[in-house]
Amino acid sequence: MAGAHRRAAHRRAAPSGAPSGAPSAVRPVASSGTSSAAPFGAPSGAPSVAPSGAGRDRYFDALRAFALVRVVAYHTFEWPWLGFVFPSMGVMFALAGSLMARSLERPAARVVRSRLRRLLVPLWVFGAVLGVAMAKHGWLPGADALYWVLPVGDPPGDAWGEQAWAVLWYLRTYLWFVLLSPVLLRVLRLAPLPVLLLSLVPVVLFETVWSVPDGRLGSALSDLSVFLFCWLLGFAHRDGVLDRLRPAAVLAAAAPLMAAGAWWAFGHRVDGTYDLDDIPLAQALWSAGFVLPLLRFRPDFGWLARRPVADRIVSVFNARAVTVYLWHEVALMASVPLIDLMWDVPAFERDLPLDSMWFQFGIAWVLIALAVALFGWVEDVAAKRRPRLLP
């Protein structure tokens, strides 16, 4: 994915006295790592807090929350196998596609405007904060800064802030899917299963026959081709196409897709790694095979309402999904100097596992919670709801 090929390179050595395994500054920015508020799939009329009762699919909500946790875990630990265990971005695009199809039961123009507003307003706030920070580090924006206003291409930035802005490939891809959805939904309904199969053709061609052009256009085409199947699969789920398929047929389709994805990943490693985020065709095939049964076999998550703490966590993740995604890399960046300072406190150095990546993971979530408190209300404004400090 576009972000996957821009590995950030700002690693910091541990402070003097810190073990060499101390957390480092930057994680790869990749697609495994975008659904709840509009860019992450929540219905445009969703309340600030997703209620446990009727009107919300708590299975979808739980998947979305888990996908976001997995994204943060991947960007912390850099484990390449995480993409096989749970391909978060494929899941998030499928969930968003399903809810986009539901929203398109209303006039398309109004739905698209609502989705764009709920995507762009949080992005503008994020861009304003990050832009000021990058300017203080010497970045001078040019005409391409307009991509921060409407990210039809990757917004620009400098090397210092790359870890933070490179994740925006997901929002750019989501924006294009939203714009194309009225047409894509009509096309899918002409012949759902053939269209689903044909949706994998572009990524196969781009990876085996033609190369995408360099620059923003190529990045956009590549990411759209990788996740087109998942987005359309969300449409098919909403239209009941998947429910009409026999379970055996679903498994018979999913297994070869995943097998082909794994085979391609291990046979086309990039820099020695089988990380799906660096291998677009493998990502597309594995995600397609993984998400297909995930949407067909939907367990009842009504039990979540009987566990108030878990239910509340899932609700908050869904109400603040855009904020969590936008700011999680900033939290990881900020966790490094914060942990560096902790090494200077003898009690912390003695009693806390400062050299553990798990400790950095925990600190990052504390900082993400702070970002939710500081900026999460922007999602309410974007959705034309009463702003709330915490959902």
UniProtKB/TrEMBL annotation:
Pfam families under this entry?
A: Acyl_transf_3
Q: Which residue stretches does the UniProt record annotate as biased composition, category Low complexity?
A: 14-30
List the biased-composition ranges (Basic residues).
1-13
Classification via InterPro entries: Acyl_transf_3_dom
Keywords of this protein's UniProt record, alphabetized?
Answer: Acyltransferase, Membrane, Transferase, Transmembrane, Transmembrane helix
Write out the GO MF terms. acyltransferase activity, transferring groups other than amino-acyl groups
Q: For this UniProt entry, which segments traverse the membrane?
A: 79-99, 119-139, 167-188, 195-212, 218-236, 248-267, 358-378
Q: Which domain of life is it from?
A: Bacteria
Q: Which residues form the Acyltransferase domain?
A: 58-374
Which parts of the sequence are annotated with region: Disordered? 1-30
Protein name in the entry: Acyltransferase
